[in-house]
Design a protein that fits this description.
With 157 residues, the chain is mostly beta strands. It has helices at residues 130-133, 146-149, and strands at residues 11-14, 33-38, 54-60, 70-71, 80-81, 94-105, 108-112, 120-127. The chain has one domain: Elongation Factor Tu (Ef-tu), domain 3 (Beta Barrel).
Length: 157
């Protein structure tokens, strides 16, 4: 096994959220706008990105203090293994969000659908490509039926 691995941020994600309370739990349910500020050393890597409507942001959950292997996610009161959830308290605190690219200004990307805390370190950006990233024959495990029982909007109440 190789490792350890060292990653350096390529930028920072800016959002209106300064604390977890009231923050969306998934980017697909968020209309919040923010921006990605790519560090100048990596700006050349943004060439042609404006041709994509959506981006996959890979980032660090840098404010998680205690990783756990079993968690109670928002949509269920029962404990589940961390790898069967989207919970941020992961052994390797890596997150991802699919966001809409609204516009680009130099090394700044204006985005919609942000669901991270302001100042989150960005590790990578990938274009969302439906032919590669969208799957129709899927199973949702313990989440099946959860949206009807506990709607996403309840997260904000």
């Amino acid at each position: 096994m190789a490792g350890p691995f060292v990653f350096r941020p390529i930028g920072v994600i800016r959002s209106p959220f300064t604390e977890r309370e009231g923050m969306p739990i998934q980017s697909a349910r968020s209309e919040a706008e923010g921006r990605v500020e790519v560090f100048e050393a990596y700006a050349e890597g943004l060439k042609d990105i404006e041709g994509f409507s959506h981006l996959i942001l890979i980032y660090v959950f840098d404010r998680i203090e205690h990783p756990a292997l079993t968690v109670r996610p928002f949509l269920d009161d029962a404990p589940h293994g961390i790898f069967a959830t989207r919970h941020p308290a992961r052994p390797n605190p890596i997150g991802l969000s699919v966001v809409e690219l609204v516009s680009r200004e130099g090394a700044t990307l204006h985005i919609r659908g942000v669901d991270v805390l302001d100042g989150t370190p960005l590790l990578d950006i990938k274009p969302y490509v439906p032919q590669f990233d969208h799957h129709t024959a899927t199973r949702t495990g313990w989440l099946k039926g959860q949206e009807e029982e506990r709607p996403w909007e309840a997260r904000y109440e």
